[in-house]
Every structure is written in C-alpha cells, then in structure tokens.
Design goal:
8 strands, 3-stranded antiparallel beta sheet, 34% helix, alpha+beta, 5-stranded antiparallel beta sheet, 229 residues
C-alpha cells in the first residue's frame, strides 16, 4: 500500500502543471473631443401653470439666442418636473408652492463655445448648471492602446520572473482581461457653480477641459519547466 501511495505521489509531481501568474496594467491619457452641458431653470411658483409658462419663456429665449452658433439637433430636454413644495412653518408642514424645473442637455464639439452658452443661459433667466461632461466619440482606439500596454507589462514581468528564477520554456497559456475602464470627465459643483456666479456678475465664463483616461488590467498565466529554489 505504501509503495502505491509513493508511486502516485511522484506521478502527480511528474504531471503537475508548473505555472506563474502575473498582472499587467496599462493607462492612456487623451484629449476629449465632445462636451455635454446640462443647464436649465428651477424656481418655486405659487401656481404650477404660471411657473411652467415662465420656464418655457426662458427656454424659448435661450434657444433663440443659440441659433447662430449651436445646431438645434444638438439640444435635447434632459428633465422636466413639477412638484408640490412643503415647508415647516411654526412646526407645521405647510404647502408653499410648486417647484418647476426644466433642464436641457447641449452637445458641444467646440469647447470655446461652452462659456458663451453659459453666458447666454444666464441672460435668459437660467439659474441651474447641473453638470458638464467631457468625453470622446470614439474611445475604442485608446482602450486598445491601454490593453496593449497592459499585455506588454505582463509579458515583461513574466520574463523577469523567469530570469531571476532560472525558469525554462516559459510559454503563455492564458490571458484574462480583468478590467477595461473608460471614464468621462465630470465637472460638477462647486466649480460649475463658480462659473455660474461669474456669469451672473457679468464676467466672461471660461471653461478649460482636462484629460480623459482609459485603463486596462490583464492577468497572464505562463507555464514553465525547471527552476532553482
């Protein structure tokens, strides 16, 4: 029985798979080529119909001011809401009016127009800058570059491990992409609220885009023969 057990043990060692695992990461930075500005009107009115009418007037005034430099198809309604508003007065909840809001999402390819759009919005009675998002219309090429960097880093690590450990016949048998991430750049409050305040004071609003980033992570499995412990 002991001989059989010993034989099985050495057979298992003989056919055991020797492998190493390494992780590689890659990151690529690139400039955005499109921006999405969400901006609108939000206020409280005693009458819902009156509030909606005034908000629509502000929206129409704003849209008319954009005709010369923004295509109408690049503007869409992002949100419309009318909600009853209550406040605690003398420790009692009382109805005080209607919160009326309408937001527009504006697509801009020329970033020099962002400040101009904000200024036009403020002069049209807008009081809500919800967000500014910088993105890219085709991030696939940059994602592929990040993935290539991740694979190259994993290969380099595998070679270095093989050299210091005196491993022979190192071969890649499996590559697993564990993470591929592209995140648009969000520019929200309080920086945008600072731009809103400047526009309200008559200053020219200037908005500078940052860099976008995409990253990839891969795990590589390599088999080998030999080696010194």
């Amino acid at each position: 029985m002991k001989k059989i057990i010993v034989c099985l043990f050495f057979c298992a060692l003989l056919f055991a798979e020797n492998y190493i695992k390494v992780t590689g990461t890659g990151e690529v930075s690139f400039a955005p080529n499109i921006a999405y500005l969400t901006i609108g009107v939000q206020s409280t009115y005693e009458n819902a119909q009156t509030g909606q009418r005034e908000v629509n007037e502000n929206i129409n005034k704003f849209m008319n001011s954009l005709q010369s430099f923004v295509d109408k198809k690049d503007v869409e309604t992002s949100a419309i809401s009318i909600q009853r508003r209550y406040e605690y007065i003398a420790q009692k909840q009382q109805f005080v009016g209607y919160d009326v809001q309408q937001l527009l999402k504006i697509k801009l390819r020329d970033f020099s127009l962002i400040g101009k759009v904000i200024d036009k919005a403020m002069s049209s009675g807008f009081n809500n800058i919800s967000s500014l998002v910088f993105s890219h219309t085709n991030p696939d090429a940059y994602e592929k570059e990040a993935l290539k960097k991740a694979v190259e880093e994993a290969q380099t690590k595998a070679k270095e491990l093989a050299e210091v450990s005196n491993l022979k016949n190192v071969k890649i048998v499996d590559i697993d992409e564990t993470n591929n991430k592209f995140v648009p750049l969000y520019d929200q409050n309080p920086r945008m609220m600072g731009a809103l305040q400047m526009a309200g004071e008559g200053a020219t609003t200037q908005v500078m885009p940052g860099e976008l980033k995409t990253s990839a992570v891969v795990q590589m499995k390599c088999t080998f023969a030999g080696g010194n412990l």
